[in-house]
């Protein structure tokens, strides 16, 4: 009886939390199918009809396609480079070991603890001096700082990989690059997927970096387009929410699709042996 009551209570709490978390998303989505007067009359109610005028207006008046392509390019290239740099750094420090690895790990930890906001001005100066200001390449270079986060997650998982496997490959004549590519990468694939999903969501939804390092409309990302929609559509909040939904849908699909792999990546390395 007590166990049944506990399950009912837990289910009720989870349902309540799900409603609280899902209500803002519901509010945004339903209002994309309403006109401004309909939204002001009852913003919570379901739309009376499936009206796609807001989506048509957004695609007709905004360069959504270019912004989507810019965001996809920056996200794909940035995350691929972050995973490559982070995994190679973790492999190198564990593979070689020694005092140098300890010192390098400490330097990376110190870099990880520095808030991004405190480095904005020197980063901007570096980007300008490198001739990468207001460019997608410069934005990608900024995101490479996220390799440190990838390193710390991957190195913790990589410690669960039996070093005997790497030693056997080295005895058989495999060089560091061959060991990394043929043995280490397949073994750490779960954590690569997990970290990759987290970094994709970060880069895709990031607002601060594109706002600071991009200025040309042709380089707009989807988040910048959503922010500009407030001024573009003045008080037309259904149109603004339509842009927001366009930004959210890819990440929602990604998270639902990769949810199983995220859980596997977070739990697989928790038990060694």
UniProtKB/TrEMBL annotation:
SUPFAM superfamilies assigned: MetI-like (SSF161098)
GO biological process, one term: transmembrane transport
All residue ranges annotated as the ABC transmembrane type-1 domain in the record: 68-258
A cellular-component GO term for this protein: plasma membrane
Gene3D superfamilies: MetI-like (1.10.3720.10)
Xref: PROSITE patterns: ABC_TM1 (PS50928)
CDD domains: TM_PBP2
Protein keywords: Cell membrane, Membrane, Transmembrane, Transmembrane helix, Transport
Repressor as UniProt keyword: no
Compartment(s) where it occurs, according to its Swiss-Prot or TrEMBL record: Cell membrane
Membrane topology category: Multi-pass membrane protein
InterPro entries for this protein: MetI-like, MetI-like_sf
Bilayer-spanning residue ranges: 12-29, 72-95, 107-127, 139-158, 179-204, 237-256
Family listed: Belongs to the binding-protein-dependent transport system permease family.
Protein name (database record): Raffinose/stachyose/melibiose transport system permease protein
